[in-house]
């Protein structure tokens, strides 16, 4: 499975860390940057990642990281077929997939440890959408 990953400067260290974890776990990654901790604008990385994940034939799931996760989440959710969710623990990462069929996990680097970020990513990737009553609700999200 191919996973898209991207961040701004606040999430750069976490992106690097998580990219290595993903490779160790056997995932292929597509890195959307940034490639250093210099100040950048998060939409420049969130838009291309969301566009790729939104095209369902290209990349299955995405991970975006910024300081609060709010900016990347808001940006990604502007795209068709994207359901980006912020999580700061494994329960939220799991529920985002189970109940909301989220396809982009947004991580707030300034508020979680690298260990928690890795646990959330692993949970997100290993959780499936339950469908059923949740499918009806997810079907009402798009405008």
Model description:
The protein has 143 residues and is an alpha/beta fold. It has one domain: Ribose 5-phosphate Isomerase B, Chain: A (3-Layer(aba) Sandwich), CATH 3.40.1400. The chain contains six helices and five strands, in the order βαβαβαβαβαα. The chain has a five-stranded parallel β-sheet with strand order 2-1-3-5-4, sandwiched between helices. Helix 1 packs across helix 5 (114-125) and helix 4 runs parallel beside helix 5. 38% of the residues are buried. The mean pLDDT is 95.
Question: Summed up, what is this model?
Answer:
The protein has helices at 12-24, 43-54, 70-76, 90-100, 114-125, 133-138, and strands at 2-7, 28-31, 61-66, 84-86, 104-108. By secondary structure, the protein is of the alpha/beta class. It has one domain (2-138): Sugar-phosphate isomerase, RpiB/LacA/LacB (Ribose 5-phosphate Isomerase B, Chain: A, 3-Layer(aba) Sandwich), CATH 3.40.1400.
Features of this protein?
single chain; 143 residues; alpha/beta; Ribose 5-phosphate Isomerase B, Chain: A; 6 helices; 43% helix; globular
